[in-house]
Write a structure and sequence with these properties.
About 60% of the residues lie in helices and about 10% in strands. The protein is an alpha+beta fold. A hairpin with a 2-residue loop joins strand 3 and strand 4. The radius of gyration is 32 Å and the shape is elongated. The chain starts with 11 loop residues before the first helix and ends with a strand.
């Protein structure tokens, strides 16, 4: 859009015109599909905006991955606790049955001890807290009551823990849904921008992407760096076998990947379990400078560490770049490098 030079003392009409123009510029930036005829952004401008949206989508994707991983962990923990509670309740029932058998035996031999009779209709905590009650019970009865009390307290604690984890799970599921919507929103916004292009422009962009995928995958000089350790070499080899596989947010293989999905999958093939998200992977080892990198090292990009790949040697990284791209090689200098990590 044409620039305007504001006079030193603009009139009310002039200010209104400038305000309207600024608002129109914001709308154009947010959604080029609503741009007025003649002001439609060109192919390069659309590509730049789409690339930014893809980067924002990847940021949200890593948050989505983290929430999904937390959800899965909580579900396992809750399942374990619920199983423990079920088994504990069975044990408690058996203990109570055992005490009931004692009461039956007492009755047959001359009557039920009043304290035992009282226990069978109420909570044993009420009696164990009273020394006078204990004095009236046999050693066998005291031991049975204490076991029941301990089991009840354990079950109460486990049920409380399960309740808290269920609350956490509900919040995590909400976060997961929000992050998924955010990713989908960014991708939808990018698609709207792409839809503003002519068929010729779309074909040109598609051709550029195909060239980038093909040239970055097939004609890359990785040098003669063979310094990778056994497992790092195995992980890198696994990742190489997925060159050309499409990027899909939230995917961890084997038919599609996002950035951290590729690295975690590759190391899993080498028998090494690393965290799922790029941020968590960044804390998996000591940080390395670019000059210290060896083939197979994890390499991290951007200040918030939302992108990760595998060092391929000769200044190249093997990674799953973004929506619309495939697993491929790329210059490490094409993104803001932060540090590497050796697994």
């Amino acid at each position: 859009m044409a620039s305007h030079r504001r006079p030193k003392q603009p009139s009310r009409t002039r200010v209104t015109v400038l305000t309207t123009a600024a608002a129109a510029a914001v709308v154009l930036s947010a959604n080029a599909a609503n741009a007025a005829p003649g002001e439609k952004p060109g192919k390069d401008e659309v590509k730049a905006k789409v690339d930014t949206l893809y980067e924002q989508a990847e940021q949200a994707t890593e948050k989505y991955n983290g929430a999904k991983e937390k959800q899965q962990k909580l579900q396992k923990e809750i399942s374990t606790i619920q199983d423990n509670v079920a088994r504990g309740q069975e044990e408690l029932n058996k203990l109570r049955d055992g005490l009931g058998s004692l009461a039956t035996a007492q009755y047959r031999s001359g009557g039920i001890d009043p304290s035992v009779q009282l226990f069978l209709s109420a909570d044993p905590d009420d009696y164990l807290d009273k020394a006078s009650t204990l004095d009236q019970l046999s050693g066998q009865q005291v031991e049975a009551l204490k076991k029941i009390q301990d089991k009840q307290r354990q079950l109460a604690q486990e049920r409380a823990e399960a309740t808290e984890k269920l609350k956490d799970l509900a919040a995590t599921r909400t976060e997961l849904g929000n992050k998924k919507k955010e990713v989908q929103g960014k991708l939808a916004e990018a698609q709207k921008l792409l839809n503003t292009l002519t068929a010729k422009e779309k074909a040109a962009l598609a051709a550029e992407q195909q060239r980038a995928n093909r040239s970055s995958s097939e004609r890359v000089d990785l040098g003669n760096d063979t310094s990778a350790s056994g497992r790092a070499a195995a992980a890198f080899s696994a990742a190489q076998s997925k060159i050309g596989t499409p990027y899909v947010y939230g995917a961890s293989g084997p038919s599609s990947f996002d950035c951290s999905g590729l690295t975690s999958w590759a190391y899993a093939q080498a028998g090494v379990s690393i965290p799922r998200t790029s941020e968590a992977q960044a804390g998996y080892g000591a940080h390395l400078s670019m000059s210290q990198l060896q083939v197979g090292d994890l390499v991290f990009f951007y200040g918030d560490l939302h992108h990760v790949g595998l060092y391929a040697g000769n200044g190249q990284v093997l990674h799953a770049p973004h929506t619309g791209a495939v697993v491929r090689y790329e210059s490490i200098n094409n993104m803001p490098f932060q540090f590497g990590v050796r697994v």
